[in-house]
Amino acid sequence: MWNRTGAVTLLLFLATTCYSQTPEYLSAFFKQNIGLKDAEIARIERGEAVAKILDSPKPSHVFVFGAISIKAQPS
User: Buried-most residue among 61, 70, 74, 75 (CB within 10 A)?
Assistant: First the structure.
């Protein structure tokens, strides 16, 4: 499912756009692309860390997604 380029692209996308997106957009993105459940998204919104191991094309590859919401200015 994921390759290194895809994972790096996802991380760059999240780093450059997430802080300006609406909660509904992020919720849909997390559900569709990462496979998070509503309870996991709620934990992120409360400021709790969430980590999930993602599918990888080879057993020797490990892809981990992590998120936490920090209430601060982007600068």
Answer: 61
